[in-house]
């Protein structure tokens, strides 16, 4: 009679199979990623949202600088990355809602 060795020392094969089944169930949501074809290459939606967020934040920065009210915002290292994230999420909700 052959003895089966567990996959991991100290754990049963049933537990390892359960972990694999749970992991496969969690990863199955990644099967159809939202992507856009650009010149034959596929790019994820979030990439376009981040580019749009950065571009719109630069435009807002230039407008505030021209109006000379950019000093009214808090620390720039916090405000502008937050603005990029906010605009990127707004672009995603507006354009890529599935």
Beta-strand content: 5-15%
Specify the helix fraction band.
Answer: 55-70%
Overall tally of domains: 2
What spatial form do the alpha-carbon principal axes imply? Answer: elongated
The major β-sheet equals: 2 strands, antiparallel
Low-confidence stretches: none
Number of helices: 3
| Quantity of strands, as a count | 2
Give the CA-CA distance, first to last residue: 56 Å
Give the structural class: mainly alpha
Overall radius of gyration: 24 Å
Task: Describe the protein.
It is a single chain. The protein is mainly alpha-helical and 98 residues long. The chain contains 3 helices and 2 strands, in the order αββαα. It folds into 2 domains: 1-32, no CATH class; 34-95, no CATH class. A two-stranded antiparallel sheet has the order 1-2. The longest helix has 22 residues, at 45-66. It is elongated and about 75 Å long.
How do the strands and helices of this protein lay out in sequence?
Blueprint: H1 13-27, E1 35-38, E2 41-44, H2 45-66, H3 76-95
Antiparallel strand pairs: 1-2
Please outline what is shown here.
This protein is mainly alpha-helical and 98 residues long.
Q: What are the main properties of this structure?
A:
98 residues; mainly alpha; 2 domains; 3 helices; 58% helix; elongated
